Each structure stands twice: as C-alpha cells, then as structure tokens.
Write a sequence for this structure.
C-alpha cells in the first residue's frame, strides 16, 4: 500500500497541495482524476520522489519515501512523467532497455534482455523495436515510454496521463493491458487520467482532487456520482450505468450553458426542441463522451 499522510506542498508562497491523506491500495488500479491544475501530477511526482517532500509523509510498502535509498526505491516504483524527453536518435528497443538500468547498472544480463523483449511484446511494439524514436508517431512513442516503465519490473507503476496521444483503440488496449498486469502479475498501477470513463470502466479505486485538495476516494461507484463530478468539473454531468459500471455523460448539447448550438447548415432556431421532444431525447439519446 502507498500511504500518504498530511501531505502539503507549496511553490513559492502558492499552496499546490493541502493536507492530503490517502491510501492507495496494493494490487489495484488507482485512477487520479480532477480538473487541470488540481495537483494530480504534483502528487504523483512527490510519491515518486521527483520532487522533495516539504510537509507530511509518504510510505510505499511501509518504506518512507523520503529516507529510502534511490536504488531500493527504483526497484519498488517506476514512474512515467508527463514530458519525458530522451534523445531521439535512440532506437525504441534501446529506450525500453533503459527501464532495466536499476537491475544491472550498465551490464545487462540475459534476464534483462528477456524483460525488454517481453515489454516490447506486451505493448505491441515488437514490429517497431528497431525504429528510431523520431520515426515513431506520438502514440507509438508514448507506448514505448510505457514499455520502458513496465520493463523496470517494479511492483508499483505510477503513470502520469499514459493515455496521452493514444487513439480510442489503443487507449482501450492500454487500459485492458494495465488491468491485466494488475490482475495476473499482482502489480499496482496509479495513473492520472482525464477521461473519466476510463476510470469508470477500469479503475478499482478512484482519487478525486481539486484545488490541491483531496475531494473523495473510494471505488468508482461511490466517487463517480453526478453530484461529485458536476462539482469537481464545474459542469453538469450525468452518470448512467453500462456493464455494471458508471458511465459518465457530459456531451448533451442542450446542457451546454443553456445555449443553443450553432451548427453549420442549420438555421438558428432550427434545432429548438419542443418540450415533448426534450423528454423523448433525454430518455433515448444519452451519448457517451
Ligand atoms: N514549477 C511550477 N511553478 C509554479 N507553479 C506550478 C509549477 N508546477 C505546477 N504548478 C502549479 O501547481 C498546480 C498543480 O499542478 P499539477 O501539474 O500538479 O496539476 P494537475 O492536476 O496535474 O494538472 P493537469 O491536469 O493540467 O496536468 C497548478 O496550479 C500549477 O500551475
């Protein structure tokens, strides 16, 4: 388990995180959600010790993050930040191999090579393994960084917006892969995710943040409610059910600030629904985002 107690963080005089206390369960997929600037990345970076702790305490599997030697920490947690930049004249296989560094310190053994190949395979990257990074699309590169993080083999994976740049098919495949890694390998994944429906469909545990504060934590069913999400994102949000999980809906045109949409080719007023139409529409046309 990762335990966070009384965590606060400032940059200059600005409070970025205020008194966060949370437990991230082991062997589960945890989603960090919340609006831009909520402090999700800062929290993840503090857990991964990419930022120095100012106030509060974080332990990972009972180890105090502030006091644990870096080598031990690297074998416990792998963190993928939002803007990872590595020299582009590097081949994808070499990038993924960096993930093994904490294990071999420059002298890879057969087990390290095998782990790299397994990571390339796990993220469907074997056909691209010999390409240079600047010959990859944004989404392929993103999957490469994920494979590097996975290859590290640490029981905890902390991922900041891993769905960035991924199309719907690859995003779904990644979530399925992460859920499988959690289920079959017993690893623990903590990920920042903006698209709440990925949290709704795949997360075991959700942490909602806003303005540097923890707003709610718990299973998707208890956190992803209409009231909480509408307040979290300052926008009207409906929550339906799909496959026994919450399904978050927020694309109703008639919700959008109460303003009628201007659509090309449709005269102003041409879309104005009759009162009776609205009822029918509400019942029939909920659209997932
Ligand atoms: N280096 C910095 N200097 C000043 N303020 C910063 C710095 N880094 C982050 N902040 C501020 O800290 C707050 C939290 O940022 P953080 O990146 O943790 O939020 P987030 O929830 O991950 O946001 P997003 O969803 O937009 O990525 C924001 O208000 C941001 O402007």
């Amino acid at each position: 388990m990762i335990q966070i107690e009384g965590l606060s963080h400032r940059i200059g005089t600005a409070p970025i995180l205020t008194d966060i206390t949370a437990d991230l369960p082991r062997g589960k997929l945890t989603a960090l959600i919340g609006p831009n600037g909520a402090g999700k990345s800062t929290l993840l970076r503090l857990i991964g010790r990419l930022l120095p702790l100012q106030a509060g305490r974080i332990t990972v599997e009972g180890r105090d993050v502030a006091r644990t030697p870096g080598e031990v920490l690297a074998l416990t947690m792998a963190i993928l930040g939002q803007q990872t930049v590595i020299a582009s004249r590097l081949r994808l296989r070499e990038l993924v191999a960096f993930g093994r560094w904490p294990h071999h310190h420059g002298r890879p053994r057969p087990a390290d090579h095998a782990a790299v190949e397994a990571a390339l395979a796990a993220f469907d990257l074997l056909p691209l393994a010999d390409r240079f990074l600047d010959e990859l699309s944004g989404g392929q590169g993103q999957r490469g960084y994920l494979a590097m993080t996975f290859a590290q083999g640490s029981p905890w994976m902390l991922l900041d917006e891993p769905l960035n740049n991924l199309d719907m098919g690859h995003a779904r495949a990644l979530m399925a892969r992460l859920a499988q890694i959690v289920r079959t390998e017993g690893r623990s994944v903590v990920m920042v995710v903006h698209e709440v429906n990925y949290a709704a469909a795949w997360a075991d545990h959700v942490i909602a943040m806003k303005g540097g504060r923890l707003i709610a934590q718990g299973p998707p069913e208890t956190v992803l409610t209409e009231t909480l999400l509408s307040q979290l994102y300052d926008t009207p949000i409906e929550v339906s059910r799909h496959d026994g999980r919450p399904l978050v809906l927020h694309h109703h045109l008639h919700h959008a600030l109460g303003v009628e949409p201007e659509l090309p080719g449709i005269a102003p007023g041409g879309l104005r629904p009759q009162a009776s139409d609205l009822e029918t529409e509400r019942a029939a046309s909920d659209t997932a985002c």
